[in-house]
Automatic annotation (TrEMBL):
One of its GO terms (molecular function) is transmembrane transporter activity. It is a multi-pass membrane protein. Residues 19-406 form the Major facilitator superfamily (MFS) profile domain. Signal peptide: none annotated. The lineage of its organism: Bacteria, Bacillati, Bacillota, Bacilli, Lactobacillales. It is found in: Cell membrane. SUPFAM superfamilies: MFS general substrate transporter. PANTHER family: MULTIDRUG RESISTANCE PROTEIN MDTG. This is Major facilitator superfamily protein. It comes from Liquorilactobacillus vini DSM 20605. Keywords: Cell membrane, Membrane, Transmembrane, Transmembrane helix, Transport.
Length: 406
């Protein structure tokens, strides 16, 4: 046992393993940075003007969505540039750009400046997606599922700790200092990436670059690639559809008494803990039994778990189901990314992953809209029912998509 442990710690690492370690640290810190400011963003907006309740809700929605809308539009451009210049360059561009933009958010004097910076944040996005693309291209195909499963835990773990750290910093030092600290964290990510990430990349001349139409027309498993892009959007739509109403649903379950904010934070974080432990194991299992099977298992399980959330009677039941959802999350996005990596030509991997980020951003935007619409039309319970239906229908889409490989 000791010899095995010693080998794990001290054996020589291959290039892809070294990149994986550094990028795990980078995505962990990026996850902290991106989620650090989210718990108090609306409260920060409220300090930038004398807004009515409706105005505050409107500006909060615009400010939150601005980044994802720009990401959906700009990601394919960055993906094309990544295929020409390399994924490492895109990682450096994203981390440095975000460090500057988010740091400047602490100096804004009105809501319009904040919205502009949130739009710029979308332009400088792409650290996590390009990290995925770099690992996908530098890792042997037989290890890609495991590697991507491990990598996603970095971002998930950072996202878990970000709101807790951000809440502590904001409470003790104020909102503006929190943005500055976030910028410093991303600057550290930039420096880590500069010195410790290595890419064996051969630049492609602009004249030799294929258009998006040419790439998709020559893909050996085109249906799988297109299918996984839409699957990403469905997964994110399902995940984010409950985000606007989760704390309100918890408040109802607690009969409007008790520490609603603390309980909401804990229950919101539970899926991250189970994803953290399950993702590497499910990724490795997918390499052995087939990533398609892991993805299908995750979709079916997620639909079945969302369904009873509509009828829970206390926060304990909801917490248990949220923990189980984290396990299905560990089977979903890593499996999609592994299938994209295994079915994308190396010369087009950057663009394929950038398209995936665009579809992910579309899911991030449309999910809260669906959740808000359903809860406004009916009640909170129906949001979980509609989410279960969306994910269940996604099972048929996944089956249709991966059937092309058989």
């Amino acid at each position: 046992m000791y010899a095995k442990f010693k080998d794990l710690l001290f054996r020589p690492r291959t290039l892809w393993e070294k990149n994986l370690i550094v990028l795990w640290c980078g995505t962990f810190m990026a996850g902290i940075a991106f989620s650090l400011i989210m718990p108090f963003l609306s409260l920060y907006i409220d300090t930038l003007g004398n807004f009515s309740k409706d105005e505050l809700n409107f500006y909060s929605g615009i400010t939150y969505s601005a980044t994802f809308l720009v990401m959906a539009i700009i990601s394919p451009f960055w993906g094309k540039l990544a295929d020409r210049k390399g994924r490492k360059l895109m990682i450096l561009r994203a981390s440095l750009g975000m460090a500057i933009v988010i740091g400047l958010m602490g100096a804004v004097t009105n809501i319009y400046q904040l919205i502009i910076l949130r739009l710029l944040q979308g332009i400088f996005s792409g650290y996590v997606s390009n990290s995925n693309a770099l690992i996908a291209t530098e890792t042997p195909k037989e290890h890609s599922g495991k590697a991507l499963g491990i990598l996603i835990t970095g971002n998930v773990t950072g996202t878990l700790f970000g709101p807790l750290f951000g809440g502590f910093v904001a409470a003790n030092f104020g909102y503006r200092i929190t943005f500055v600290i976030t910028g410093v964290i991303l600057l550290i990510v930039f420096l880590l990436s500069v010195f410790f990430v290595h890419e064996s990349f051969v630049p492609v001349e602009k004249s030799q670059m294929k258009s998006a139409r040419e790439i998709f027309s020559t893909l050996p498993n085109r249906r799988i690639i297109i299918g996984m892009l839409f699957t990403t959007m469905l997964i994110q739509l399902g995940n984010f559809s409950i985000s606007p109403i989760l704390s309100l649903y918890i408040r109802e379950l607690m009969n409007y008494h008790g520490p609603v904010t603390i309980v909401s934070g804990i229950i919101a974080s539970l899926p991250g803990f189970s994803t953290l432990f399950a993702a590497p194991r499910l990724g490795a299992l997918g390499d052995k039994v087939g990533t398609e099977r892991i993805l299908m298992f995750g979709m079916i399980a997620a639909a079945l778990i969302y369904l009873p959330m509509a009828w829970v009677t206390n926060v304990w039941e909801l917490g248990i189901l949220r923990f189980l959802i984290g396990i299905t999350n560990a089977a979903l996005l890593p499996a999609v990314q592994a299938l994209l990596a295994k079915n994308s030509p190396t010369a087009a991997t950057g663009r394929i992953f950038s398209y995936n980020q665009s579809f992910q951003a579309l899911g991030n935007v449309s999910g809260p809209l669906v959740g808000s619409f359903v809860s406004g039309l009916w009640d909170y319970s129906n949001v979980f029912l509609s989410t279960a239906v969306i994910i269940f229908l996604g099972c048929f889409w996944v089956h249709f998509s991966v059937k092309a490989k058989k």
